TrEMBL record:
Chain intervals with Polar residues compositional bias: 1-13
Gene3D superfamilies: eoxyguanosinetriphosphate triphosphohydrolase domain-like, Hypothetical protein af1432, putative deoxyguanosinetriphosphate triphosphohydrolase like domain
Disordered as annotated region, ranges: 1-22
Keyword Protein biosynthesis: no
CDD domains named in the record: HDc
Record-annotated HD/PDEase domain positions: 56-256
Origin superkingdom: Bacteria
Single GO molecular function: dGTPase activity
Native source organism of the sequence: Fulvivirga marina
Record key words, sorted: Hydrolase
Protein name: Deoxyguanosinetriphosphate triphosphohydrolase
Length: 444
């Protein structure tokens, strides 16, 4: 792989454009994402803790903004060195281009996540695996398509959303799309290489496979097999930005909620800061929240430096596809991050409120899917629709209804139903579920 090719501003279905120094295509990507409907919905999607009770914990929206901020810094720092190493790039690119690509990809990294956190992914998968209204669809789809449905993946849904015309036709550059794609493989592969971080999950559905293939070819990504490629090097920076933020900021939220003690939190942040930790200076800050916020900010700075240094040290191996490990799994602070993760699993992610949110997701999402896929299937069969299914269809957006017809592909119809349900906010999903089940009625 080479950097000039990896920094392509090509957009799907469009002719390449000259690089605009005043406002690059990559900066346009950032703007397109931040003004899009799917991004705005992240303000009412759970990050870890339920949203209504605590106004200071992170939603998917605030998390994405923070990851993007860290990502921009990582990209610009790496870009500054890369432009010195590869002077031929200076005529076409600036340090801001590297920052904008990582910032835009980071901004979108959670855009495909359904309501109710990661349990929402499991709830969608289990609907097709175990629920009577879902599992019978296996006979209508291919093995690859069934794997997409029964192993629903937010990363692949994100790639789908970013490339669907009805989501304002974002048409991001290939460079941003590739940096977004942490898992450049399909869902069903013959053998997963567990040593490669990029193969841990999958990054696109069959419905977007031709688009992903075209992007990978244009980027010059290394092909390892049928619909399996190497990562774009900057995907490692996007992943690092996400890892840094969720590890450190979930810990901060956990401390503020009283799930993790103040002393334990300080000790973990101090483990990252090492000689930069100044207890006396910290204690001069009156507010405990301000103390924790200060330590979190300083710790982010340390992890950015360590991650960027490793990225640049491994540049050659990244371009050859040899290095395929999460940056935060290989830096000096990795042991402390592992301690933070262990504590977070024990005290934060398994807190009662988090478990209650997950339990709700396992009822709400399958309930919504049952209503909509049943109605869609009946419409596709061309028979007389029951009144119940007519009502369910009318609740779906007009663009989704247009995708459901007698001559439609069953897989695509099911994916359209998933688009609708997974795109809902937590509040919308709960409200619509209660109305469909007759638990509540519309106001007014």
């Amino acid at each position: 792989m080479n950097w000039e090719q990896l920094l392509s501003n090509q957009r799907s279905g469009q002719k390449p454009k000259e690089h605009d120094i005043s406002r690059s295509a990559f900066e346009q990507d950032y703007d397109r994402i931040i003004f899009s409907h799917p991004f705005r919905r992240l303000q009412d999607k759970t990050q870890v803790h339920p949203l209504p009770e605590y106004d200071f914990v992170h939603t998917r929206l605030t998390h994405s903004l923070e990851v993007s901020s860290v990502g921009r810094t990582l990209g610009k720092r790496a870009g500054q060195v890369l432009l010195e190493r590869h002077k031929e790039l200076k005529d076409k690119f600036s340090v801001h281009d590297f920052g904008a690509i990582v910032a835009a990809a980071s901004l979108a990294h959670d855009i495909g996540n359904p309501p109710f956190g990661h349990s929402g992914e499991d709830a969608i998968s289990e609907f097709f695996l175990y629920h009577d209204q879902g599992k019978h669809f296996k006979e209508y789809v291919t093995d690859w398509q069934w794997q997409d449905l029964t192993n629903f993946e937010g990363n692949a849904q994100g790639f789908r959303i970013l490339n669907k015309e009805r989501y304002q036709g974002l048409k991001l550059t290939y460079a941003t799309l590739a940096a977004f794609s942490k898992y450049p493989r399909k869902s069903l592969i013959d053998s997963q290489d567990k040593e490669r971080r990029s193969q841990k999950k999958y990054g696109f559905f069959q419905s977007e496979s031709s688009l992903f293939s075209a992007m990978a070819e244009d980027m010059g990504l290394i092909k390892y097999g049928d619909n399996v490629w190497s990562r774009h090097p900057m995907a490692f920076l996007v992943e690092a930005a996400d890892d840094i933020c969720y590890q450190l900021i979930d810990l901060e939220d956990g401390c503020r909620l009283g799930l993790v003690s103040y002393d334990d939190t300080v000790e973990l942040y101090a483990g990252i800061l090492q000689e930069k930790f100044d207890k006396k200076k910290l204690e001069r800050i009156e507010s405990f929240d301000e103390r924790i916020g200060t330590l979190r900010a300083l710790s982010i700075g340390v992890l950015i430096e360590e991650s960027c240094t490793l990225f640049l040290d491994e540049e050659e191996n990244l371009l050859k596809g040899i290095f395929d490990t999460a940056l935060t799994d290989t830096i000096k602070s990795t042991p402390i991050l592992q301690d933070i993760e262990k504590l977070s699993i024990e005290k934060i992610y398994r807190a009662r409120t988090v478990m209650e949110t997950e339990a709700a997701g396992f009822e709400v999402l399958p309930g919504l899917l049952a209503a909509f896929v049943t109605a869609a299937h009946e419409k596709m069969n061309g028979g007389v629709l029951t009144k119940k299914n007519q009502s369910a269809l009318r609740l779906m957006p007009s663009e989704v209804r247009r995708e459901i017809s007698e001559d439609a592909n069953m897989y695509q119809v099911l994916m359209s139903c998933i688009d609708f349900v997974s795109g809902m906010t937590d509040t919308h999903a709960i409200s619509l579920f209660r109305k469909i089940k007759g638990i509540s009625l519309p106001n007014g």
